[in-house]
Specification:
Blueprint lengths: L7 E5 L4 H12 L3 E6 L2 H13 L3 E6 L5 H15 L4 E4 L15 H27 L4 E6 L13 H21 L4 E8 L5 H6 L3 H9 L9 H12 L10 E4 L9
Parallel strand pairs: 1-2, 1-4, 2-3, 4-5, 5-6, 6-7
Length: 254
Amino acid sequence: MSRLGGRVAIVTGASSGIGRATAKLFAQEGAKVVVGARREAELAELVREIKAAGGEALALAGDVQSEQYARDLVGAAVKQFGRLDIAFNNAGTIGPTGATTEVAEKDWNSAVAVNLTSAFLGAKHQIPAILKQGGGSIIFTSTFVGYTNSFPGVAAYAASKSGLIGLTQALAAEYGPQGIRVNAVLPGAIDTPMYHAVNNSEEQRTWLTNLHALKRVGKPEEVARSVLYLASDDAAFVTGTAHLVDGGVSITRT
């Protein structure tokens, strides 16, 4: 039996990595999916794959920094599929790296806009639609960085992503009585284009891999399965959590 049958979901950052894997898994589990990201061609290919596998999906390209885009994603879900039950606000960026004293204000603001403000804007417009169904699930993609530990040179990333945990808790408390569950998933290092862009040498990748208790990096599909759990009725009593899917990087000191 499908775990998301009859439900409609929005997935942002869906053109690659965790978002792409989650959109495909949601569709496999019976959800009708609206996928969003900036790259139109990649979204079109994702929709083609979902439909070829027997699922239903709609793509809408845009910039998550835009409040109008947040409105449009919800509008597309309701117009095409009649409702909204689940939102996976996954879009994100590493942002500026290097010494914090050298980070330009505009680059800091851009990282906050993509990682944190976009999630607020998404939830702001998703919540009213989800409330019409008597409740549902919202999930954000945060990270262990700035939560259980951190690294030099990633202040904007750590601050903006850890801010999602505060947003998660506030929304969970505010809308729990109305049936909306809100959780954050916190991946470790995951084999995505973003991971390779930041860790562009074998030495760097080996160092990061060995920080994990499992001594490997994760796969997007492994995070997607945790997101599916949080979206489904299996997690009916789970809200306000920072859900680590990090291969043990948070507890390893060897």
